[in-house]
């Protein structure tokens, strides 16, 4: 089998990602032992916590208020169509009942298979489900985190020093992925995280991993991080992607300025993953939550550039999504119930970004997201004669498409107003003329 994928690969990717690009909005869930120290999911690395220090959280872990049905309801009410949970993050703690390590939720006081419960609950709400799986592992004895640090980016060559041990780790990692793909029913997304330096692609035995994945779950879609690092997106960004380039790009904490396209300008599926405050894992001191207004605008921005938004929540040690996050999700949901038609199934309008906001488009329907208050009529640049009728999406009311008296200098543009002309505060043409 060749490393490089052929054109049928691109066709298959288009097929596989159809639902994903329709659904547009998902929930990311970062949850694990790190919810107890509550200083983010990198706490063990950033603070150089010893194995014993971190073990205390394992001994204590017992999220009695974990009720994934509530999470699923919150996601659905927010208008989210899919969700991705950290089955294992970099700390190596497994939220599922793996046979390959004892370091798992079923061995804690909780005794529960948190992944299975998540999958059952979200599927029951009709949401698509995905699992995040960390390629890094700070707990596995053979993961090459040698030296003074469990910070992998410091030493991306370490894996070469003891190939036999790295092979052990890869067998373990492949084995766990096999478990997740075999024992947990149909999964819609596998979200691997992440490559760095030379530790990418075949260093993970990625062709073998992808062949297993596709044979067990033919329709599953995969992110690009078996190949991508923080600096590079991998070959998904090219016309000649590898078999492990992934089905979608995964820009993190950034919305790509012009979306994601290959060198010929063809759109590439992408999903921006964005935190609600400034942390993925629960961080008690981080109160910097985005407002619902910001989240809605960012979602519109993603869709206006052919992308998805995977919005993160970090449930706490007891298993609850922070109240602040729930409040934002509720408000976003209120907007989505009225305006979701401008998000689901929509993409870029292939028109220049208007001054007052953004466009999204679905077929011959153009959605004008007016994000700035206007003075006078709203300008639809270059669309003179191309607007059949205009409606306010939120309430279905008529928007008045006209060529107002003060727009005669702009013959190529169409204009609309939310109010009928009799509500204008400036003189109407006939009043002026007489
Ligand atoms: C990764 C994780 O480290 C993080 O905890 C979170 O899960 C996020 C969604 O994904 O974040 C990264 C990955 C790569 C880099 C930085 C953050 N990088 O290469 O600089």
UniProtKB/TrEMBL annotation:
Under Pfam families, the record lists: Alpha_L_fucos
Q: Name one GO molecular function term.
A: alpha-L-fucosidase activity
Q: The Glycoside hydrolase family 29 N-terminal domain covers which part of the protein? A: 14-341
Q: Which family does it belong to?
A: Belongs to the glycosyl hydrolase 29 family.
Q: Is the Signal keyword given for this protein?
A: yes
GO annotation, biological process = fucose metabolic process; glycoside catabolic process
Indicate what this protein is called per its UniProt record: alpha-L-fucosidase
Site (May be important for catalysis) at 273
Per the record, what is one GO cellular component?
lysosome
- Alphabetic keyword roster: Glycosidase, Hydrolase, Signal
Q: Which SUPFAM superfamilies match?
A: (Trans)glycosidases
Q: What is the uppermost EC class here?
A: hydrolase
The highest taxon in the source lineage is Bacteria
Q: What is its EC number?
A: 3.2.1.51
What's this chain's function?
Alpha-L-fucosidase is responsible for hydrolyzing the alpha-1,6-linked fucose joined to the reducing-end N-acetylglucosamine of the carbohydrate moieties of glycoproteins.
């Amino acid at each position: 089998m060749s490393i490089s994928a052929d054109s049928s690969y691109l066709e298959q990717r288009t097929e596989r990602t159809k639902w994903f690009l329709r659904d547009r909005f998902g929930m990311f869930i970062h949850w694990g032992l790190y919810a107890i120290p509550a200083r983010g999911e990198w706490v063990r690395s950033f603070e150089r916590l010893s194995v014993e220090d971190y073990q205390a959280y394992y001994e204590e872990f017992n999220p009695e208020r974990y009720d994934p049905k509530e999470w699923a309801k919150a996601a659905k009410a927010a208008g989210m169509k899919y969700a991705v949970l950290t089955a294992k993050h970099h700390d190596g703690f497994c939220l599922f009942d793996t046979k390959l390590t004892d370091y798992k939720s079923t061995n804690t006081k909780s005794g529960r298979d948190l992944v299975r419960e998540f999958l059952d609950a979200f599927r029951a709400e009709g949401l698509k489900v995905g699992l995040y799986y960390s390629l890094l592992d700070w707990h596995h004895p053979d993961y090459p985190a040698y030296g003074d640090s469990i910070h992998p980016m410091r030493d991306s060559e370490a894996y070469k020093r003891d190939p036999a041990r790295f092979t052990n780790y890869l067998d373990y990692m492949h084995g766990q992925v096999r478990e997740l793909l075999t024992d947990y029913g149909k999964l819609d997304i596998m979200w691997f995280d992440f490559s760095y330096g030379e530790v990418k692609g075949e260093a993970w035995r990625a062709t073998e991993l992808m062949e297993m994945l596709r044979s067990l779950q033919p329709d599953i879609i995969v992110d690009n991080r078996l190949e991508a690092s923080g600096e590079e997106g991998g070959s998904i960004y090219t016309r000649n992607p590898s078999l492990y380039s992934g089905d979608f790009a995964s820009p993190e904490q950034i919305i790509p300025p012009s979306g994601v396209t290959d060198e010929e300008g063809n759109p590439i599926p992408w999903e921006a993953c964005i935190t609600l405050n400034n942390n993925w894992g629960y961080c008690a001191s981080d109160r910097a939550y985005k407002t619902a207004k910001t989240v809605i605008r960012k979602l519109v921005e993603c869709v206006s550039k052919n992308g998805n938004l995977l919005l993160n929540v970090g449930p706490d040690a007891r298993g609850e999504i922070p109240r602040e996050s729930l409040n934002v999700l509720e408000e976003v949901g209120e907007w989505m119930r009225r305006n979701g038609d401008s998000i689901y199934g929509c993409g870029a309008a292939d028109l220049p970004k208007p001054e007052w906001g953004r466009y999204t488009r679905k077929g011959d329907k153009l959605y004008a997201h007016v994000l700035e208050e206007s003075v006078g009529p709203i300008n639809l640049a270059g669309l003179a004669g191309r607007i059949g009728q205009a409606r306010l999406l939120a309430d279905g009311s008529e928007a008045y498409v006209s060529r107002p008296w003060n727009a005669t200098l702009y013959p190529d543009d169409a204009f609309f107003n939310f109010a009928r002309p009799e509500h204008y505060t400036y003189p109407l043409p006939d009043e002026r003329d007489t």
